[in-house]
Inverse folding.
């Protein structure tokens, strides 16, 4: 075999291998037309990649319909919470192809809707069983990208997409959505979270509560292995409830034990017309005798808010009052709203740690923060 022949042979072999692999391997199919499927199993995990080892980012339930864009290795790609996600195709049954046109994005291209209810939850999918990702308010306008059943997929100001119940919107141009008569359907099936605030001393105010740390970031570790992120979270829940009780619209930067970056916390606050941003933390210090509560502010203008909140806390709990102080924390520096970070006791101190974990303490703090805000907005 001379040199020329062997090169030609190698080239042909390589070509054959490439062609063969195209024939047998399940290469990505880019669907010219999107496909619409219905979930046939009781639950279906939504994953970040087309593999059973990939991260679960959510769940569909039986009857959910989804539009898919790609197919690969028995997985189909769709969008969830504005992100590209994958689900196993064998849990899906196709919805008749003709009806897929009715859910195609082009269908609703020129529709713009206005939020009709005072405050409406934006969800990660077309149904009340999906996670609440944002809140929008009466008069806000959004372009509709697609629709599914009685739900519109809309483009949010931050570039993400989300789903809104069509019966809580009106179409811009004066045509009232057909389903408006069944108005508070979503609120009835989902009573607690974000009821329109109509009364109370904080009615009309939007407060962002920022539970510090979470997930891989435990914050300070205190006596008895107490993790700051956990007490922060339970305390924040008390604060959120008290604020809602007072009529405020409350937005939280984390609603579970997961990591949220400082940038994201700032972004969440700045996405809204936030009247105040309160970050919740607990302290620790190598000197075990140090104890007490502190309120920090970064901008001079925010000092009155820090003072009102701190004096309210100091008068309601038995921990030492360390006053309000300046500190250049990112969440205080970069948020547009008046911002305060409260350190609600030292988990490195035996006395503080025994008190701050109690329901009674967290409840008192929640009431104190609420009263501090009422005082500030007076
Ligand atoms: Zn902290």
């Amino acid at each position: 075999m001379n040199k020329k022949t062997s090169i030609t042979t190698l080239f042909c072999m390589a070509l054959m291998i490439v062609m063969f692999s195209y024939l047998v391997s399940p290469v990505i199919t880019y669907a010219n037309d999107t496909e619409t499927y219905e979930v046939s199993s009781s639950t279906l995990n939504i994953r970040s990649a087309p593999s059973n080892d990939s991260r679960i980012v959510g769940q569909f339930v039986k009857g959910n319909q989804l539009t898919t864009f790609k197919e690969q290795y028995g997985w189909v790609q769709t969008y969830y919470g504005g992100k590209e996600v994958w689900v196993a195709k064998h849990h899906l049954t196709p919805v008749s192809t003709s009806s897929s046109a009715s859910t195609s994005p082009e269908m609703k291209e020129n529709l713009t809707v206005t939020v009709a209810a005072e405050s409406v939850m934006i969800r990660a999918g077309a149904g009340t069983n999906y996670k609440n990702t944002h809140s929008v308010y009466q008069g806000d306008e959004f372009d509709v990208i697609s629709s599914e059943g009685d739900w519109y997929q809309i483009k949010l100001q931050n570039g993400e997409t989300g789903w809104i119940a069509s019966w809580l919107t009106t179409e811009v141009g004066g045509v009232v959505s057909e389903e408006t008569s069944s108005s508070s359907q979503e609120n009835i099936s989902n009573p607690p979270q974000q009821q329109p605030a109509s009364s109370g001393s904080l009615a009309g105010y939007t407060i962002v509560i920022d539970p510090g740390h979470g997930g891989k970031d435990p914050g300070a570790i205190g006596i008895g292995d107490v993790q700051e992120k956990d007490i922060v979270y339970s305390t924040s829940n008390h604060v959120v409830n008290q604020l809602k009780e007072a009529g405020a619209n409350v937005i939280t930067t984390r609603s579970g034990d997961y990591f949220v970056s400082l940038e994201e916390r700032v972004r969440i606050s700045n996405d809204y017309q936030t009247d105040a941003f309160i970050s919740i933390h607990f302290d620790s210090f190598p000197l075990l005798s140090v104890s007490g509560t502190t309120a920090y502010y970064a901008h001079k203008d925010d000092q009155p808010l820090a003072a009102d909140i701190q004096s309210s806390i100091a008068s309601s709990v038995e921990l030492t009052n360390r006053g309000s102080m300046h500190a250049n924390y990112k969440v205080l520096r970069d948020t547009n709203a008046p911002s305060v970070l409260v350190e609600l006791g030292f988990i490195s101190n035996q006395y503080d740690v025994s008190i701050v974990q109690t329901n009674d303490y967290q409840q008192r703090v929640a009431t104190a923060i609420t009263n501090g805000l009422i005082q500030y907005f007076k």
